[in-house]
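Morning!

This is the sequence you dropped in the shared folder:
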Amino acid sequence: MRRSPFFDGVAQSEVSIAGQPAKVPIFYYDGTATSAVFAARLGALRRLMPDRRFSPARLAPGLGAVAVTCFEYRDTDIGPYNELAISVVLNEPWFLPNLPGRALIASLRRRQLHAWVQHLPVTTEIARAGGVDFYNYPKFIAGIDFAQSDRTRTCRLSEGAEHILTLSGERIATPRAEQFQLFSHLYMDRQPQSSEFKISANAMGVSINPRSAALELGTRHPIARELDALLVARRPIQYQYLASFEGILYGPEHITLALMEPLIAQYAAKTAGSPASASASGTPPSATGADTTARAA
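The structure's back. Tokens below.
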């Protein structure tokens, strides 16, 4: 459904991203996702963090958790595209006792997952440019290809000719319909940054069977080698299959003047080009306004 009640009450603004029209917050009208959480070396995860206010969640003594999530967005305000997130599950807020399993149990209970985004490849320039400029998402253009059979769904990530990873998961039963929040934690201008991706899953299934999914890593790409050093197993401790979902990507938590300036310029150009403004100034609408690219997601 292009416009369901899930989006009611959320106001949007028209902006330009990479020279293309868009809206913020960005609405995701139709998508499919698979996500697997893997046990990883806690000490190595800590060394990835740029600030002590990012604390990898302790899964067990010496172990943390890394999530690999594959998104196929078929219909959004910035067009269709694919995305793959490699994230570190966080103990949030960072100063709470980091007891084994506490953060993961709390996330399941509250339906809120907090994660540091380590890599976020996408397949379109508008998705890349907006995410980098407005949030400092670690985005780059890559090949993200999906294949599906009656029983499995596969996502393959590559950069050029180099294979990075392949996540294969079962198309498990999807009896659940629920809403939850993904909080992406980032680092921008030497301070923590974050954003909320609210998801309404229309058909979702969850499995703790390690055989429900498997991860295959490439041998030469830096991201594949990084994951090989981080993970202690390539079978998941938890797997999710969202056969159908909707989503809302909200703006960044910390709005600085540097982030506001391009949006203000766009608004000023739009206002100057409006018929009412042109009539008041005596200038034809066609002679006013400018195409300014906003730093938006």
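Headline: Residues 23-254 form a domain with the Acetoacetate decarboxylase-like fold (CATH 2.40.400.10).

More detail when I'm at my desk.
O.
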